[in-house]
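Suppose a classmate hands you a notebook page containing two proteins, each written out with its sequence and a corresponding row of structure tokens. How would you begin to make sense of it? This section walks through that situation. The first entry is reproduced here exactly as it would appear on such a page.
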Amino acid sequence: MRRPSSRSSHSWVSVAVAVPMFLVGITAIGFAHGKALNTGEIRVPTKWFPGYALNAASSAERPEVKSFWRAPDGSTYIGTRLGLFRTRPGGEIDSVRGLANIDIKALAVAGPTGPLIAATREGVYRVDGGQATTLLAGDVHGVAVHGGALVATHRKRGVLRSDDMGARWIPEPGVADAAKRIPLPPPAETVTLSRLIFDIHTGSAFVGATYDWIWWDVLGGILAFLVATGVYLWWAARRRLARERAAALPVRPRGAPVPTPVAPPGVLPGFAAVGSPSLDRATR
């Protein structure tokens, strides 16, 4: 049996590695333009990606508690990145319907007995018992109650206020203008080594955080281009080699009998003579 050469092994390993490298290049571009493409609010199925199931089954991926509230009836609501959970006085725990697998960023209470208001990456929700109802859509950083009104910090729309428990939202007066007058901090003179490594990796150490998308686009595009052209060159070389081998084979007329190999004098049929090409190839 012919052993694979180091060149052949290198080629096959390169092709196998090309797939994850190509994905890294393409996703780098998608990561750089996530805000423009609104990828943070687009839901996609995960059944084709086994890593999510592995994370769910791993004890190391247990969700950390980000917020909680204890209701007057003794129930405890726990906000995590995997949703909002309710622990009953008897010890039973269940997931609040409508908030499964949604990152809970903050909780607020509209009154002494509720209702409970949750700020998430998907919006603001009102929680009544084990059911959640949408009050405001979009990525919300936090929510609070001020003077009987709900106040939410929306990623795109800024600070919003609702005086009717989420039926209508309006911009909070004066907040946007005050935010524009906040003075910008001076450039940092020193950073931690871990921050410097991260900034070099993302390119913000060279082009700044505002233009780091250029870094991602250039590197991601180059990586995807090199992978695509490398796979094409490998395929073209194998195709050319196959054509050359096919051209080197003798052409037998259609219907002609297949010639029977004749052993050299002094050599038994089925055995190769010493110094013959077949024996040389077998002993290499």
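The notebook's second entry, a different protein, reads as follows.
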Amino acid sequence: MRTPIATPTPTYLGLIACLMGMSLLSIVGMQQTAFAAPTAVEACQTALSRGQYAEAIKQAELASQSPSAWLCKGRAQAGLAQLAAATQSYERALKLNPVGVERISAHMLLGNVLREQQQAEAAISQYQTAQQLSQQDNIKRYVMINHHLIGEAWFELSQYAKALEAFQAGEKLAMNDNERADSYAHVASAYFALTQLDKAVEFQLKAVLMQKKAGTPDQYANASLTLGEYFLAQKDYIGAEKTVTRLLEYAQENGGAFYEGLSAIALSNIKRAQGDLSQATVWFQQAEKIANTLNDPELNAALSKAKP
């Protein structure tokens, strides 16, 4: 098991990473068009994959009539947090009339960068366009992705019922256990936000089972921690403790000290919620011991947040 990864939030990052091997806000690969300058575009993509954003931009500018080049340039600009410039690059790509997956990608990437600029409603419009194009081309995976991206944007707007509807639509299109795991987690997060705790637990439990079956150790661990939080919110202390204890044992067996620390923090929170301050202190001290050994910023932050 690795040392730290970000705890899942109602974001589609996990599923996009699983499906595309990229982060949420740089989701899709790019295809060459007949009129592109392949050498420049390929050089841009190579530089982009290496995190050489300035070089990627330089190469993209050698192929200014290629939609692929503008998409690559936009992704590089987004990597440099030049969000307004990235927006312009994606818009320029669309003006060059890309086709197929490339056009779908342009709308999705534009939606992503708009979300980063706190323009969730504008992002939804882009995702809806990408979804329609995906349906026309019968690309079911992209239809699913856009359902979830739409759901995320609604979630950011605190429109949890609309987010749930979008997540549920995406879940129906999941094609494998990895996609089901992430879809279930998204549905669960929306139910949790709507304070429908029984449903949140139901779907997060499904996510845990799918991650145990098909996910990475980190994905399983994070899903289990979230399930423990849902049980705790439901005041099902037995369910919470069993879930986190199972994760603690799993982490110990697999050399996951980071998750041992997070499990100890979770168990401390559970015991404190039950009024067992003595055991809460024991678990908190165990978490402190692990944190002092690892000196991991994420674990330290979680410990500080949980400090009584």
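A careful reader of the second entry would note: Confidence is low (pLDDT under 50) at residues 3-10, 12-37.
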